[in-house]
Amino acid sequence: MPGRATDPIVIPDSLWQRPQTLEALRERDIGRLFHLLRQYAGASQTQIAILCGMTQGKVSETMKGGRQVLTLEVFERIADGLEMPDAARMTLGLAPRMFTLPPSVNATVITPRDDPADLAPPVFVGSLDVDPDVREEGDPLRRRSFTKLAGASMFSAILADLPGDGAPLQGVEAFAAALAGYPGISSKPGSTTLSMDRLDTAVATAKRNYQDCRYSTVINSLPQLLADLRNACATYEGDTRLQAEGLSAEAHHVAASILLKLDHDGLAWIAADRSMQAARNSQDLTIIGSSARIITHALMNDGHHGAATKTASTYAQQIDHDTNEHTPDFLSVYGSLLLRGAVAAGQRSDRHTAATLLDEAQDAGNRLGGDFNYRWTAFGPTNVQLHRVNIALQLGDAGAAIQEARRIDLDRIPLTERKATLLIDTSRALTQWGKHEKAHDIIRVAHQLAPEEISARPAVHRTLRDLMATSPPSIKRQLREFTTEIGVRL
Q1: Cα 172–243–193 angle (5° rounding)?
Q2: How far is 382 from 339, CA to CA, in rounded Å?
Q3: Are 250 and 203 within 8 A, CB to CB?
Q4: Residue 174 to residues 202, 248, 352: CA-CA distances in angstroms?
Q5: Of the N and C termini of the chain, which has fewer Cβ atoms inside 10 Å?
Q6: Which domain of life is it from (predicted)?
């Protein structure tokens, strides 16, 4: 169990020989290293932060995968703070701390004449210069880590990781700046930055990473892409500008989806609105319908379930009326809009509307003829089944949700994000049904499949808290071990 901030960390020597630790050091995966410290040394995020000269928030973000350590100075600070042995330091790519002087070099110790020669030099609060044979009894590492928690080191730890003037924006803050039109780019027409092929590839990569639940990767790359697309839309004319607007609509759709998953509803609203503006500018009905999906999602997250249902059904009717040919792209966007409206209806306990929209979506899936990913919708008959599980859950029918889930072949779901969503919904239904052990097992499977879907999403953390609150003591213990292992605090 993680210790209190003022408790010393006792890191067993065996930790540095574990294969998982050696792999984390070789890959410079500091987030994984911090997880191993929690697991094998019982270290809390605050204790790690104090020893490594970071803030608890930065440690948490690193453990969740949303922040990567890249600079040598920070690697050195972490290695020093954890008192890594030289073998571990070298595996991390750092120089060892202990060097043996050649025999020809004589070291001379100069002692101040006012100090008695037989006294050891004083050790200041926060110093690591502790002689285990002279200073005090007990484990040296335990004492060293305790002194790191006091005085000057505590002061430095609090201030060390605060950004200075001009520090680059990261994570959600970078999204906020990009959505606000932060002037961080001076691209020119025809440059590599504004190449339409590059922008098209970058948007497709962002969507693929999102569907693979690699959210930290999307968060790191998407704000810059949004700025590039904004410049492209302002630079190009004619059909090229329409193409740029369509890509901007899709990129802002991904941004809104990520922000909704992280519970940043205000920023998500801005991104969803930008997606719809760009979609209209693109003059592409399927892109407009796709952007309507994220508008509907934002409305749902804000509690406007009636408006969300109306928005989805209205846009579905509009693109159906205005489209002459029911292509696979059209059927996928149309069916996905109906599913979004059905979920919103389920959230307001409107069973009739939910059932009607589900049946219409089922018909679109049947006409499509299979499970595909046209326009990045993951739409098809199986996706309709996934939504039946979710809607039964929203209506409080846990038994019906489980029955629907039993009919789904997980291997037929092509996307990681969709599989993880089904597993989480099934775990919630099992919790409602009182099947706590099975709910716990399912959520573990979801984490193996999509770690960031479990560790990074506040909504999933609420699911874990619900499971913890209602589970018997034996399952509670397993849940505590699991959440500690993945760095989630309940």
Answers
A1: 55
A2: 12
A3: yes
A4: 17, 17, 42
A5: N
A6: Bacteria
- Residue 151, sorted as left (phi over 0), alpha (psi -120 to 50) or beta, turns out to be left
Whole-structure pTM value:
0.69
The CATH number assigned to the domain holding 371 equals 1.25.40
Given a contact cutoff of 8 angstroms between Cβ atoms, the answer to whether 219 and 267 are in contact is: no
Do 308 and 213 share a structural domain? no
CA neighbor of 392 nearest in space, from 441, 456, 347 = 347
Coil/strand/helix, residue 164: coil
Structural domain boundaries enclosing 363: 284-403
Q: Is residue 108 part of a domain?
A: no
User: Considering its fold, how many domains does the chain have in total?
Assistant: 4
Among residues 413, 338, 347, 403, the alpha carbon closest in space to that of 378 is found at 413
- Tell me: do 33 and 74 sit in the same domain: yes
Dihedral of alpha carbons 455, 459, 461, 464, sign? negative
- Mind listing the pLDDT tens digit for each residue in 60-109? 888 887 677 877 778 888 998 898 998 888 888 887 776 444 444 444 33
Backbone angles phi, psi at 278, to 5 degrees: -65, -35
pLDDT digit string (tens) for 295-304?
A: 999 999 999 9
In whole angstroms, give the CA distance from residue 328 to residue 43: 52
CA distance 344 to 338: 10
The Cα 210–Cα 267 span in angstroms is: 18
- What does 262-318 look like in DSSP terms, one character per residue? TT-HHHHHHHHHHHHHHHHHHT-HHHHHHHHHHHHHHHHHTT-HHHHHHHHHHHHHH
Where is the domain boundary, 274, 298, 325?
274
Report H helices in 348-415: 351-368, 381-394, 398-406
Indicate the pLDDT class of residue 485, thresholds 50, 70 and 90.
confident
DSSP single-letter state for residue 277: H
Give the three-state DSSP class for 109.
Answer: coil
